[in-house]
User: Fold TetR family transcriptional regulator from Ciceribacter naphthalenivorans.
Amino acid sequence: MARLSRAETMAITRNKLINSALQTFLKVGFSAATIDGIAEQAGFSRGAFYAHFSSKEQIFLEIIASQADDVTPKLIAKIEGASNASDAIEAVSRWAEERSQSQDLVVLMMEVMQLAKQNGTLDERYTRLFKKNWYAVGEALRPFFPEQRMPGSPEEIIAIIVALSYGPVVSGAGGFSSGRLVKLVLTAMMLPHSS
Assistant:
């Protein structure tokens, strides 16, 4: 069996730490999670953690970036595969419904965002990450708006969709389906009203 290179070993260690961090955050929350606990669960020392990440915030950002890098291209492909506005609305509505089912990660994200706001540590990396992905999805939707005119920026349109997707999960709002709420809003914005 061939011996792994240093780069391969580092990549494996990094991935194990990321997976351990995600599981730890989901189990005990961001605030209660410790760097020692994350490293120990992954089978490494605190030093191994710091060889890859400078803080809990950095590893959390890596988790969110990884999720976004996985989900965003798939959603864009579904939108671009739509033949008309109704199909695009349906694709985004299904995505919203799927997202609303992943409550653990949403609650974790809300905790981190709240802490960051309180501590003044919500740095540019979070904002850039979300805006970049939201812009790309919004631009994929643009061709389906009447005359390709959106009532707001691509980021604002997707921020509305994200809020509707995750809002009912977080607030427990009256049993409304996230997919249904997104469909209502997009239909109102994208499809011409007939009298």
